[in-house]
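[PROTEIN RECORD]
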Amino acid sequence: MARSAEVNRETSETQINLRLVLDGTGKAEVETGVGFFDHMLTLFAKHGAVDLIVKARGDLHIDAHHTVEDVGICLGQAITKAVGDKAGIRRYGHFTLPMDESLVTAALDLSGRPFFSWHVQVANEQLGAFNSTLAEEFWRAVGATGLMNLHVLCHYGKNAHHILEAVFKASARALRMAVEIDPRVSGVPSTKGTLT
């Protein structure tokens, strides 16, 4: 049975429908109205080997903040739903990814206890309609509602596009590792017997 989830969120600021299939092939259908963000979510799906559908309408006449953050909330919720009781998963994931002059490490634990650490120095830049500082807000939201311990570290880099692309790819690869079924584990990978 495919591990999947659908999340709908409607507020006065955004209307979002998101569908996630953890055991996917990297297919993405993304429409947020924010081109750079669509690009990041598409490569997240590809490198995470998940199937992802995102249809988002937000108050882009103000800026992209609410749209980006609320998609992050929905993605985290979908991850939580799709992994279920977490029986048999690897639980931990990490990946160090080079992107041209940039090098980024993402490490996560699907512990059920949210914690977010962001050590990414990136210039405050507009990448189309996407302000570079929104990446931190997105991943904070994913980590909180995904009930994960998420650490993101940029070792070095100069180009904002390269740094953020490395962040999304490394995080996708780390998540892919963490949700993977471990054939040597039959129950929940915790001595407490639960990951909540």
About this structure: Strands lie at 4-10, 14-21, 28-31, 51-58, 92-99, 102-109, 115-119, 126-127, 130-131, 149-156. The chain has a mean pLDDT of 96.
